[in-house]
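subagent[fold] <- orchestrator: predict structure for attached chain, return tokens only, no commentary.
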Amino acid sequence: MSGRRVRIGIDTGGTFTDVVAVDEETGEVATTKTPSTPADPADGFLTGVRRVLGRLGLDGNAVTAVSHGTTVATNQLLEGKLDRLGFITTEGYESVLEIARQSVPDGYGNSYFWVKPPRIVPADLVRTVRGRLDVTGAEVRPFSREDAVAAARFFRDAGITTIGVCFLHSYADDAHERAMLDVLSEEHPDAVVSISSQVLREYREYERSVTTLVDAAVKPRVSAYVGTIRRRLDEIAPGVPFYVMKSNGGVLSAAEVVHQPITTMLSGPAAGALGAALIAGTAGFDRVLTCDGGGTSTDVTVVVDGEPALTTEGSVGRYPSKIPMIDVVTVGAGGGSIAWISPEGTLRVGPRSAGADPGPICYPAGGPDPTVTDASVVLGRIPPHLLGGEIPLSVEAARDGLTRLGEDLGLDLERTATGILEISAWNQANALRQVTVARGLDIRDFTLTTFGGSGPLLACRLMDVLGLPRTLVPPNPGNVSAFGLLTVDVRNDYVQTMVSRHADLDTAAVDAAFSALEEQAARALDAEGFDRRDQQMQRTADLRYVGQAFEVRVPVGDGPLGHAVVDLVATAFHAAHRRLYGYDFAADPRQAVEWVNLRVSGIGPIRRPDVVELPARAGGADRSVTGTRPVLFDDGWVETPVHARPGLAPGDVVVGPAVIEEFGATVPVHPGFAATVDRFGNLLLTREPAA
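subagent[fold] -> orchestrator:
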């Protein structure tokens, strides 16, 4: 026992904290779930570590690493709980946050009704400094130390301790921002400061300013949270490596992530997408839609050939962020999503959630509002308990709450409950359309991989709504995000703006810029303990047609850049533009191509856990039946067999109507559907009963 070594992944969600431990020698996986603790998320984190070690009969000495997906930064931004911020920028640009962009949510048809949200920093907390660089980084006007000192003292005297600095064209040269940082450290040493050249070395002043301010805003809370977990984790496993998931699909040590907290904004959803990608790829599917249904929301993304789509055009809440992140669309449709009546008298579901505290009505200390979970338990789709009986659910309380809601709508109990699930399913379906149809992809070409505690509940209905050919439900679907944390590498992204027409491109300058970015990435990986021989570098570039407002990212080959190599990059850009927009100008020499940003991702590879095959067993699916219960499907109440998923074996076929239950999730198999167990223990839902 003393020789066993395990790695642990922990994903903290709005309702539950999911934990997975993998034995590094045997590949054995142990999982558990524990209620999240919103008042202090670290409590749920440490409880989860102790519980999973207890299941394995191990102590903290067996732990080799802990990886964590956190929603601390995400929740702070979504809830708008930001402390007062200060902003220092170039003289003449004090209104950059107010001017913002011309874009209006939902298009110009909404411009009459839309009210611009408050800026992240009010005008009275903006200070400017004289000094000016041009687009190449050459100094046009010297930095004014007098203005810098005045700005620092203003914020110190006003009690503003969180400050963002963004000077014009600092992506080309950061000398003025570093000078401002030196002044702040002297005049206002208690301030938490983010400078744009360290957060986002990329042009577009508004996005760079907001991204820098968001980084500064979340830095105190993320630093406190990570520091607390580090100290308390040392009580269990002293000195164990502790990684935090980033939005870009990589992890970073907790010691480093406090210096770039904005990179954790989509920490949890990114881990789920990567875990599902590995599981689905092992099962033989290369075009996958991931659907992560939790207690508060559902996160969806596209995976092609094992790689989730990436974007730098994301946002959290009302705050745009240009950091690289997995392209996730989130909708407020989770198990705890609250059903309510709109002012127009129609039934709505979400985005508000009952969360873990107080929880749905059916919880022991549940809240007053009916939720998706209440509808599911009333219809028999889930058992009258969660987590194998740890959390008993009151079917009667859920009935009462749904009956009251139905009376206000003029609907009976069953129609109210099925209506809630139908609306939730369409909310999820619309999110899936956003990442496929809206991007020119045929949704029918993909396999849906659904996971999370509430993810599989609506799988059959989503197949009907979207015309999907099949759905894959992994084993322990509630723990896929935590499992995903153990599949990802250490990853850092670096960017340098270098605007040039393709015909005028200085290949030597581009080569030098890539080399500088790679050296920066290599030094960061050195600090993480990776040997230079093991480090991997990925080059990409953002290109566009001259006159366009946005770019398309394409890969750039390794090695020295000559004209032949950069011409291949331009060819790849034409092809990518056609895939995205349906046209290109490859054959029109009058339409010039322009290079905009150079990017490097430095990757430190981590050993991935194996996906273990299930052993064969004698008999058929009947061996897993534990009883029956009434379940309401589309055609009314049916006395439905209940299967214990651990009792299923490869090759078993469960024909609907049926319910398949396990510790952290339930899979309703509707009439007309069948679930086939593959050799890895995945359930493959299809419309026609398998032979």
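orchestrator: received. Logging for downstream: The longest strand covers residues 490-501. The longest helix spans residues 205-236.
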